[in-house]
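== Folding the chain ==

***
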Amino acid sequence: MAQESSEHRRESYVHGYSASEQQRLATRTATGAAGFFIPHLHGGMSLLDCGCGPGSITLGLAEVVAPGLVVGVDVEPRKVEAARTLAADRRLANVSF
């Protein structure tokens, strides 16, 4: 079987788009989803959050490492826009998506 080239491979959003799943993703917190990681963080650190989704965890991490910088990336443009909106609503200046 021939291996599919990357330009022909279709990517999909692993979590899906159901309203209930999107609500679940939006309500996750850094403490709840990454609590194991928080003791290793301190103010002034820089972080990269790959697969940040709607940014709810990313923003919590940004609060922990402030004034350090956090960058969140996601394959889904709608999630990145949602994350930007949430960051603006929370007035966090040390995070970008």
About this structure: The mean pLDDT is 88. The two ends are 38 Å apart (CA to CA). The beta strands are 47-50, 70-73, 95-96.
